[in-house]
Each structure stands twice: as C-alpha cells, then as structure tokens.
Write a structure and sequence with these properties.
- By secondary structure, the chain is mainly α.
- The chain has a two-stranded parallel sheet.
- The chain is built from seven helices and two strands, in the order βαβαααααα.
- Helices cover 55% and strands 8% of the residues.
- Helix 1 links the parallel strand 1 and strand 2.
- The protein has two domains: 3-39; 51-154.
- It starts with a strand and ends in a 5-residue tail after the last helix.
Length: 159
C-alpha cells in the first residue's frame, strides 16, 4: 500500500477547503493509499476591500478609459491571500488588472504572459492609477476620514 503524506495548506475559504479535502481524500482512498494530513499553521484571510479606496481607484481608471468594477472583481475572486491579512489591519483595496492573457495566475503560462510588452504597459497604467489614488487621499483629508470610518465599520475597536 502506498503511503502518501498530504499536507493541505489552509489558503482557501474554510468551506472550499473541506470540499477540496473531500475530493483529495476520495481520490487517494480509491487509489488504495493511506493518508496522513498535517495542517499548515499559516492562515490567510479574505480580502476586506475598503469601498472608498476601491471607488477612488475605479474613478481614476475611468479617466484612462478603463472600466474597473471592483465589486465584480470581488465577486469573481476566490480564496484568500496575504493581502487579505493586510486588509484586516489597515484600509486596503486589492487591485486586479488585465494583462491580456487567459492563463491562470501563479502558473508558468501566466509568468510567460507577464513579461510581454502589453503586460508591461498594463502594469504601468495600473501603477499610475494606484499612485493617483494615493495622491487623491493625501490631498484630501476628508477622504482619509471616510476611509477610516469605512474601515472602523468593518473592524469595530480598531484604531
């Protein structure tokens, strides 16, 4: 009998983790394997998008003729990330932008697509939009107050 040590990293939402675990266990069971699981202690949280920051980024994107719908991006996002951990400590938005590829993120194909000229241009634009968003916040103290207020609503007791 094969012995397989299966280390499952807890990087997806709990419900999805159990679904993935179930399918992996069924696969190994059907192959006649013995399964030993060790859970990784690293925990990544869901991204808690600050709506004001995301709206500012979206408005700046529109000045470049780019349609950026942060609500759609959040709905289509799966799993959790280290950016999620950051977003529970300080107001954040996790910007996603298109580099003109169908490749899945964190794959060899995506890495290849990321070094193309079009991906470089798209990254520069996204960087400019992020910088514009920072300038908006720094130059408008009322925006900073709104961002903090939004954050405190979703994180009671934070300062």
């Amino acid at each position: 009998m094969n012995i397989i040590h299966l280390c499952i990293v807890f990087v997806v939402l709990k419900i999805l983790s159990f679904e993935v675990l179930f399918y992996h266990l069924m696969f190994f069971f059907l192959k006649g394997c013995e399964v030993c699981m060790e859970w990784d202690s690293i925990h990544y949280s869901n991204v808690d998008t600050n709506a004001t920051l995301a709206d500012l980024y979206q408005a700046n994107a529109e000045t470049f003729g780019i349609k950026y719908d942060h609500l759609a991006a959040e709905r289509n996002s799966r799993g959790s990330t280290d950016m999620g951990n950051v977003s529970h400590i300080i107001p954040s938005t996790h910007v996603q932008y298109d580099i003109c590829t169908k490749a899945v993120n964190h794959s060899h194909a995506f890495t290849t697509a990321a070094i193309t000229e079009i991906a470089h241009k798209k990254t520069l634009i996204a960087s400019k939009l992020m910088a514009m968003t920072v300038i908006d916040v720094v130059c408008n103290p009322e925006l900073m107050k709104k961002i903090r207020k939004d954050f405190e609503k979703s994180h009671p007791g934070s300062q």
